[in-house]
Amino acid sequence: MSEPTLVVVGAGHVAASAARALRRRGFAGPVVLLGDEPVAPYDRPHLSKERLASGSEAGLWLLDPDWCAANDVTLRTGTRVDRIDAGSGAVVLTDGGTVPADLVVLATGGRPRTLPGLDGDRVHTVRTLADSDRLRERLTPGRRIGVLGGGFLGTEIAAAAVTRGAEAVVFDLDPVLLARALGPGIGAAITGLHRRRGVDLRLGSPVTSVRPGPEGVEVDTDAGTETVDDLVVCIGIVPDTDVAVRSGLAVGNGVDVDAHGRTSIPTVFAAGDVAAHDHPRYGRIRVEHVDVAQQQAQAIASTVAGRAKSFADPHWFWTDQYDVNVQGLGLGGIRPDDVAITRGDLDELDGTVFWLRDGVVVGAASIERGEDISVARELLDLEIPVRPEQLADESVELEDLLEEEEVGV
Ligand SMILES: Cc1cc2nc3c(=O)[nH]c(=O)nc-3n(C[C@H](O)[C@H](O)[C@H](O)COP(=O)(O)OP(=O)(O)OC[C@H]3O[C@@H](n4cnc5c(N)ncnc54)[C@H](O)[C@@H]3O)c2cc1C
């Protein structure tokens, strides 16, 4: 009997991770990656960081063509998929062609959310390599760059803009950057960082309209009208479920998958930004973090290679703001009544917030303290009881909290 062919629809992070993970786990059939972009899979987080700030290509490409050739992994770029026809075991392309597929991993990611009327040469979104390269050309000294939305992407783009000598003005409804994602303490610290670096923060008032003007793009808020040379729209993404819908898959806020990444059609899996997975701690949730995309791809690879594995990771991510590294773990599951404990000095950009529920860590976010996040992961996974004062006390080694448990076991 011949080995099954596995096709990944969408050639981004999931595709690159799945290809490697399948081979590592001994999957012996052909692997075909179909992507509509004109280039091979690349590291998307680079696009708002190193690539945008400097044009760097270091670490950009995710798959080595020689490795693909040696491992029977076929990459077809510039290839747009219309739908999956699971009944006939094929993926149907928009040009009418078909690709045989016994198993499919749907990984179409997401596309930037926009607003009606927001278009034109001076309006940008950043999702693809081409988007990032086009925007970088506008980030020049003296140019005033508006950023609509002060989330992770918007703040990284503002940082890249001022790093390149442009002016950046960030518009956000919230009074504190990133507070909803990372809590008020870290949010305030990041807000201060951007102010000190010279970003013009227009926070706490809604943008009521945006229109092209004679001098640039005119942005209206309650506080007045601001004209910027270019406007970058960073108001989130929508999962790209078009292929899923045309294929008859169950779709809600993304493609519904079980803990193994399986969709409503058993031979079709989905992962990454497009997938709303069934998580043992958080219930159905769709996450837009690269580590989650990669781990989901690995779990699916294990399952199709014969060792069923569910994905139960507490969701880790990072963002770089200038040279400051920020990480988060388990934040999708934080509730308003969880107790936040601060360790270190957030305003000095050196600290961690832990969230406790019933004396157990359920999430953490850090500035320049990735090592605290590693310990938080262990505390969370093992549900080791800790006292708030132990977490807050810098004279207590966090690792000792793990060892206390090991001694006690
Ligand atoms: C600028 C930027 C910065 C980011 N920074 C961070 C960060 O710092 N930390 C973090 O954790 N995450 C970050 N992310 C999020 C991270 O990149 C995503 O979570 C990750 O890319 C998801 O991988 P994916 O494979 O699901 O989707 P993608 O990597 O988006 O790949 C999907 C691919 O499918 C293609 N496709 C769609 N429809 C079709 C079709 N019909 N036929 C063929 N191909 C199709 C798309 O064109 C795309 O190439 C960032 C994202 C962006 C855009």
Q: What's the layout of helices and strands?
A:
Elements (H helix, E strand, L loop, with lengths): L5 E4 L3 H12 L6 E4 L15 H5 L10 H6 L2 E4 L4 E5 L4 E4 L4 E3 L2 E4 L3 E3 L10 E2 L4 H10 L5 E5 L3 H12 L3 E6 L6 H4 L1 H13 L3 E4 L3 E6 L4 E5 L2 E5 L1 E4 L3 E3 L2 H5 L4 E2 L1 E4 L10 E3 L4 E5 L3 E4 L3 H15 L11 E6 L2 E6 L9 E7 L4 E8 L2 E8 L2 H13 L5 H5 L5 H11 L1
Parallel strand pairs: 1-2, 1-7, 2-3, 7-20, 9-16, 10-11, 10-16, 11-12, 19-21
Antiparallel strand pairs: 4-5, 5-6, 8-17, 13-14, 14-15, 18-19, 21-22, 23-24, 24-27, 25-26, 26-27
Helix pairs in contact: 1-9, 10-12
Bound molecules: flavin-adenine dinucleotide.
Flavin-adenine dinucleotide binds next to α1, α9 and β23.
Kindly describe this structure:
- By secondary structure, this protein is of the alpha/beta class.
- The protein is 27% helix and 30% strand.
- The chain contains twelve helices and 27 strands.
- The strands form seven sheets. The chain has a five-stranded parallel sheet with strand order 3-2-1-7-20. The protein has a five-stranded parallel sheet with strand order 9-16-10-11-12, covered by helices on one side. Strands 23-24-27-26-25 form a five-stranded antiparallel sheet, sandwiched between helices.
- It is globular and about 65 Å long.
- The chain starts with 5 loop residues before the first strand and ends with a helix.
- Flavin-adenine dinucleotide (FAD) binds next to helix 1, helix 9 and strand 23.
- InterPro entries: FAD-oxidoreductase/Apoptosis (IPR050446), FAD/NAD-bd_sf (IPR036188), FAD/NAD-binding_dom (IPR023753), FAD/NAD-linked_Rdtase_dimer_sf (IPR016156), Reductase_C (IPR028202).
